[in-house]
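Justification of resources, computational component.

The compute hours requested in this renewal are based largely on the per-chain cost of generating structure records like the one below. Each record pairs the submitted sequence with a full structure-token output. That output is archived, and it is also reused by downstream analysis tasks.
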Amino acid sequence: MDVWIVEIGEPLPGLDGQSREWRCGMLSNALIARGHSVVWWASTFDHSSRRQRCDGPRVVDAAPGLQLRLLPGPGYRRSSSPKRWWHHRRVAAAFAREARAASPPAAVFCCLPTLELAEESVGYGAARGLPVLIDVRDLWPDHYLTLVPRALRGPLRLLLETEYRRARRLLAGATGITAISETFLAWGLRAAGRGRRAADGVFPMAYPSPKPELAAEVASRARDLGTGIGLRDGQLVVTYVGSFSPSFDLAAVVDAAALLHRKGRADVVFVLVGDGDLGSMVRARSRGLPNVVLTGWFDEVGVRAMLAKSSVGLAPYRSDASMSMPNKPYEYMAAGLPLLSSLPGELERLVAAEGIGLHYESSSAPQLAERVAWLADHPEERARMAGSSRMLFEARFRSDRVYPDLVRHIEAIAGTTAQPGGATRGNL
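The structure output for this chain reads:
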């Protein structure tokens, strides 16, 4: 069968360098492996690099069974800017226009965010009697409330009532709701005003197992990396990989490093891989700290090499971040790292129940410093957490376990099953 994936924030295969697959990339691979074909509606604008991939709409045959349809949008510089809001509307308008002229699929899988594309997808499916799954990956428009001080959230909530109505309308109109966590599915069902049914389900973000063909290159890069960024043998390497966005309390991370530096803990180093809106603040705040290393962005091999040199994976979320089970912890689990996380709720409970790391209070630099020192001083406990982390990943969060299940869910919604040779038949 033909499946449409509608998502504009991920790296695209064949267009964005050596980026690893994210959720829709892994889902595309799983669909194609089951004999289906995929049209992925994306954007000409790359959210991660803030660059235009091309100067107008384009259709790209990225791989056998995978077509990318790039929708034009003006782009933006900052994640929280009004230009991003406008960009989303222009892309959604382009989707509505181009989808009408395209051959209809058997099913549509659309990610939330964005509200605008999700609404257009549900409307498209309703007009043609096609099933549409809305995949809740972030809580929009709740996300906007985290960008302002608490005192302003009440008034902003009132100003966003149109967006809340949009979310309720599209979720109620979807054939089914999938989500990356139980928390997010419950949010989606509340917004839809209904209970859970067979068309709904939880499918974690997951993470791909290391590619055997990259093993030699990763090992070579890891050997060079330590010297290149000044790591020393015996140091506890606490690594964060990701965007320097307002969802993360990176100021507390740098302040914790400063506390440990003042205490003479030369056996600890923080490595922050990435960049983003908070980049200038992080660079200024960490200036003069020998135990903070800022690397900029790495490609997939570089990230895997860095995690191979690391002792702990850091997930420094703000306490009010609109997330529950994001992708970062799975990346660290895949590397066999214990987690240091500040995200309350579902992730906090998982870390405690499975013994895969420690939780600290977001914005508390002293508590983070204390947790890091404890991990440095208890190598046997740290090794036990690392082993549990890797085993949990293998048992529950490998992409080749999660995404075939999601494909079967889409097949059930569409009323088809995969057949040898790539054919499909209806379920009777």
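The longest strand covers residues 37-43. Residues 417-428 have pLDDT under 50 and may be disordered.
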